Amino acid sequence: MKKDNTMNETKRTSNEAPLKDVIDRWLKAYRLDGKIKEMDVIGAWPDMMGIAVANRTQKITIKNKTLYLQMDSAVMRDELSHGKQVIIERINQKAGFEMINDIWFG
């Protein structure tokens, strides 16, 4: 004989939410969701731009929708400056929204 366990299972009430939703709301409330996306994009820099560019990149920061790149190669900096729009598109695609709209090279 099989017992029907559906009666014993705990049912969700309307005031319970999935953990992901709770965390997402918490991150938005404390304005951390954008920072986490920034960290994801910065962490994905080698995948987006390749190892050669990543190895020449000394520092990456994002502030006020501007990507700041500090490069250790003038040649690489010059080449990347000609492809700014492609870099902007890659980053915004990775982020899923318009995270940056300009790039400054240092």
What's the end-to-end separation, in Å?
Answer: 74 Å
Specify the number of helices: 6
In the CATH scheme, the class would be Alpha Beta
Output the strand order for the largest sheet. 1-2-3
Q: Note the run of SSEs as H and E.
A: HHHHEEHHE
Calculate the mean pLDDT score and round it: 84
Count of domain modules: 1
Structural notes for this entry:
This protein is of the alpha+beta class and 106 residues long. It has a single domain (19-105), classed as GMP Synthetase, Chain A, domain 3 (2-Layer Sandwich). It contains six helices and three strands; from the N terminus they run H-H-H-H-E-E-H-H-E. The protein has a three-stranded mixed beta sheet. Strand 1 (57-63) and strand 2 form a beta hairpin. The N and C termini lie far apart (74 Å). The mean pLDDT is 84.
Main features:
single chain, 106 residues, alpha+beta, GMP Synthetase, Chain A, domain 3, three-stranded mixed beta sheet
Short structural summary:
The chain is of the alpha+beta class.
Task: Set down the secondary structure blueprint.
Layout lengths: L18 H11 L3 H11 L1 H5 L1 H6 E7 L2 E6 L2 H9 L1 H12 L6 E4 L1
